[in-house]
Amino acid sequence: MSKFPKNFMWGGATAANQLEGAYQEGGKGLSIADVLPGGPDRFKLVDEPDFDWTIDEKHHTYPNHKGIDHYHRFKEDIALFAEMGFKCYRFSIAWSRIFPNGDEKTPNEAGLKFYDQVIATCQKYDIEPVITISHYEMPLNLVKKYGGWKNRQLITFYERFARTVLTRYYKQVKYWMTFNEINSALTFPVMGQGLVASNGANDKQNIYQAWHNQFVAGAKAVKIGHELDPNLQVGCMLLYATTYSYDSNPVNQMATLEQNQAFNHFCGDVQVRGEYPAYTEKLMNKYGFSFSDLEIGDDDLAILKTNPVDYIGFSYYMSSTVDVADSSLEQASGNLIGGVKNPFLKTSDWGWQVDPIGLRIALNELYNRYQKPVFVVENGLGAVDKPDKNFHVQDDYRIDYLREHIEAMAGAVADGVDLMGYTPWGCIDLVSASTGQMSKRYGFIYVDLDDQGNGTLNRYKKASFDWYKEVIASNGENLG
Hints:
Elements: E1 9-13, H1 16-19, H2 42-46, H3 70-84, E2 88-92, H4 95-98, H5 109-124, E3 128-134, H6 140-144, H7 153-169, E4 175-179, H8 189-193, H9 204-228, E5 233-239, E6 243-245, H10 250-273, H11 280-285, H12 300-306, E7 312-315, E8 320-322, E9 346-347, E10 353-354, H13 356-370, E11 374-378, H14 396-414, E12 419-422, E13 445-447, E14 459-461, H15 463-473
Parallel strand pairs: 1-2, 1-12, 2-3, 3-4, 4-5, 5-7, 6-8, 7-11, 11-12
Antiparallel strand pairs: 9-10, 13-14
Helix pairs in contact: 3-5, 7-9, 9-12, 13-14
């Protein structure tokens, strides 16, 4: 008996703002990603009090402008995915390609025609498109004019965007996700909500208000999708970090419970169960406000209740370890959501703690909490790849990482988890979201481009390319 279901969706994942480039072609407007500077300090820069969303090419680089030029080379890239045997390809539709300013009444047809071609190319190879409607690339105008997702008007703009793409593509695309890593806003709200220090990110009430608006907008997208076709699958997407207590000290156990509620569970509970969880008031009171302080429309809670998501997509890169009792413990430097260093885990080149067993735990936690299918839509190792003179990369470290995580998924399936598929992140090298670097590579395909934007952009298969091809061909039986 196979470790994975016969119809298991093997593939890969990308995001428009990190690989398309062509940031001002085809009528596209500026997105928030277009004004994020490149380099490992990009999150620090946007949190400066005077950050004003302007492009300053004298002092910064903007690698998202060029990406890997997928806009012009998508046919070549998807052909490579097909060569690996992809069953599905997760990508996003750039909101500002369809509504350049976000608040227009009518869409930009040139942007829609681009995605017509991308989807048609996937279909040519029998690759199932899995589309993220909003993936860290909201139109810049919605931040500058309206203040980002804390403004309730964005529900209307997102609903119009979602209706446009769902109506256009529902016959070709069965699988959708509403917002990428929606819960990431707890620690870095710039990407998902358009909030930085200068427009309210430091006030947690703004983040929870923005979440509420996104929950309602996402539920409306679910409703639109199901009205178009009841068999359409519209999921949410979470950033999940399995969380451990450093020791058995009850104080640390309690802190771990609270971190799980605040980060791993809150956004999922609302979107999957269709209502706010019992611990909502506690989360908000911690920051000095109450649920009743949020702006909530008369029909909002009913919309959430009647339009829960169909499945849970999530990213998994690392676990987190909690200790509030011993301030002398070393912090885990690279982890996106903090925590102390776990002495049992090794780390990546960027300090992310590598924990395959944590993925099996995550899958069990999510499936047993919600009893809805789960989908690992991001997972991978960001590493420095050193090609030889022929641009071959012998990335055995990446193969080892992915093998261990696939084995963990097989274990979760044996545990009874209903797992839909696996789309490793950055299946072709692209610009890192967290650091704005090309040198932080995830792909099975090497792209000749450096952090300064130099290179031929030529594509080369890494050792992991043929390895993953065999994994897919054997439905996860042959892991090398």
